[in-house]
Amino acid sequence: MAAEETTWIPLPPPTVRQRFMMGLTIQWFWALLGMNLTSIAGIFFWEDNKWLRVALALAAFLVAVVLIALLAYRATPPVLVDPDTGRVCLKRRPVGFEDVTTARVAAWGSPRNRSVLLTLGTSGRRSGVVMVRNRLGSSLDEKARTALLALLHASTVATPVSRDDPAGTFAHVNFPGHLSKADAITLVESNPLSDAPIPGLSRWR
Fold first, then answer.
1. Cβ neighbours of residue 35 closer than 8 Å, sequence gap 6 or more
2. Structural contact between residues 103 and 178, judged by C-beta atoms closer than 8 angstroms
3. From CA 97, how far away is CA 76, in angstroms rounded?
4. pTM reported for the whole predicted model
5. How many helices, marked H, and strands, marked E, lie in the chain?
6. What is the pLDDT of residues 5-47, one digit of tens each?
7. DSSP line for 129-144
């Protein structure tokens, strides 16, 4: 297992705040939130032990938020790369570099003060998130950058293709943020400035 190896190189993970925000995209979070808000609203129409019911509902809501935060944190462990064996550890499970088939970029913050995240994924929906740059500049030291580039060069990353657009003419519209292998490599090599255009994203992001 990854914990027993000595050659794994960790890549910078998202911040705690970014991990929590990613957790907000989980559909059942909003379902759970809606159920709690509905319960809280309904309590005000009940007469018996109204404030006790309010307290219990609010406590359940806070527990739900904390649970989502913990799950989001555990769902995005650091990506580990072993260039010597050509393996990358995504969500605590090693896979070969060639098993990485998708690369998706996302920007956080304002155009002049943003961080850039790169999500690597396999066809089996296993994925990992790397912070390519934070708001202060590059998040990758030379060792991590070299390892990430080795991974990308040996990967099979390609932009997804829709059955309605087999030529991929509108891939940037159908699959926003998804990068080709060349664009992913360019992103890591060039480390674009915070306000510079980023492959896969409009200049306004």
1. none
2. yes
3. 19
4. 0.72
5. 6, 8
6. 458 999 998 887 777 666 665 545 555 555 555 555 555 555 5
7. EEEEEETTEE---HHH
DSSP type of residue 165 = B
Q: Distance of CA 141 to CAs 9, 103, 138, Å?
A: 11, 20, 8
Among residues 153, 15, 171, which one has the least CA distance to residue 81?
153
Please calculate the CA angle 201-203-205 and round it to the nearest 5 degrees: 65
Is the distance from CB of 112 to CB of 128 less than 8 angstroms? no
Q: For 119-161, what is each residue's pLDDT tens digit?
A: 999 988 888 999 998 877 777 899 999 999 999 999 999 988 7
Residues 174/165, Cβ–Cβ less than 8 Å? yes
Ramachandran category for residue 180: left, alpha or beta (phi over 0 → left; psi -120 to 50 → alpha): beta
